[in-house]
Amino acid sequence: xxxxxxxxxxxxxxxxxxxxxxxxVLYCGFCATLVTAQTxxxxxxxxDTVHINRCGNCHLAYSPGLLPxxxxxxxxxxxxxxxxxxxxxxxxxxxxxxxxxxxxxLAEGQQSVMGQLITGLPDxxxxxxxxxxxxxxxxxxxxxxxxxxxxxxxxxxxxxxxHRAAASHIFDKALLQTGHxxxxxxxxx
Length: 189
Known about the structure:
This protein has 189 residues and is mainly alpha-helical. It has two domains: 1-44; 45-175, no CATH class. The chain has six helices and no strands. Helix 3 runs antiparallel to helix 4 (91-103). It is elongated and about 90 Å long.
């Protein structure tokens, strides 16, 4: 009787020990995932005052993570005709902004919402965010959801019409709101 009681106690102890170890492993895995996600988000959401003050003076100071390096280099090289406007920056500001854009540009392996935009990029990527293949794929249902036959050119720009937190580089589907009817796009896919 005493032997079976001892075996029962040892079995309970072993199960308890296994449960604790399993819980710790699960907890550590959860924390590692959380830290990785937060690290990536904070790396891609770095704010730069020169970028905000110079670029954001005319339009949303787009997150560098929305375009690849080649696109940002093309945009900065073409400031004489920046989508129909001439942009005058000092050499110091231009160099600073380009370095910031290159450092935090859209790149392979980026684990974020913006990281999806790297999908299907051609060798010579477009200069407009709205022309990225993945952007087009992610937004193809917008006209249908808004019950429009088609979207007018420029409809998806500015981003803040639907992505109210775009200035903070947040493009979460759960936070979508149309700028035209005021309703949430809760079933946005």
